[in-house]
Design a protein that fits this description.
Blueprint (H helix, E strand, L loop, with lengths): L1 H14 L3 H4 L18 E3 L5 E3 L7 E6 L6 H19 L2 E7 L3 H11 L5 E3 L4 H5 L3 E4 L2 E4 L2 E5 L5 E5 L7 H18 L1
Parallel strand pairs: 3-4, 4-5
Antiparallel strand pairs: 1-2, 3-8, 6-7, 8-9
Helix pairs in contact: 3-6
């Protein structure tokens, strides 16, 4: 029962707009635009392993989120789900990452019909490497941040202050701009 109470408290905190400003700083620095994106090896909701290296030559939308089934995270996953065909048409693969385990991701993906990998960073290593790991009131989670990674494996853009409803659209617009810039010059 105490664990369920802690879960409800975490859910309430993650849903609160003020929560973003009250959270402690991340344990490491995020890779800067133009730097190589750190590689990783994580399992998705189906148990398949994914690494950044396997997506070399493609654009990657790597988005971190705090917790499966919370209001903002559900909004974000559904927005990326609804835009996934546009993102694929633009040449980008979408990967969601949180500290939740594979089973939680499987239930989340099933409930919301998520057609892309949700990666389990239950060791917190990848969130640390990307500078998004944070703790607030005893709860450790990945902050809601997104990295657009170019086909050479470099961070093209880091979105540090993510609006779950708008992020997918921002990524699509920036992806088009990056591709136009590359084609034009």
């Amino acid at each position: 029962m105490q664990r369920f109470t802690h879960f409800l408290l975490a859910l309430a905190l993650l849903a609160s707009p003020a929560f973003v400003f009250a959270a402690d700083a991340a344990t490491g620095a995020a890779p800067a635009d133009g730097q190589a994106a750190p590689d990783f090896k994580l399992q998705d909701q189906k148990g398949a392993w994914h690494s950044l290296a396997q997506y070399h030559g493609q654009w990657v939308v790597l988005y971190f989120y705090p917790k499966d089934f919370t209001p903002g995270c559900t909004t974000e996953v559904c927005t990326f789900r609804d835009d996934v065909l546009k993102l694929h048409k633009a040449g980008a693969q979408v990967l969601g990452v949180s500290l939740d385990d594979v089973k939680s991701h499987a239930e989340f993906a099933d409930k919301y019909h998520v057609p892309f990998p949700l990666l389990s960073d239950n060791t917190q290593a990848v969130a640390k490497t990307y500078g998004v790991l944070t703790t607030h009131m005893g709860f450790t989670y990945a902050r809601r941040e997104t990295f657009l990674i170019d086909p050479q494996g470099k961070v093209a853009k880091h979105y540090a202050d993510v609006d779950p409803k708008a992020n997918s659209g921002q990524v699509l617009a920036d992806l088009a701009a990056f591709k136009q810039k590359t084609a034009g010059g």
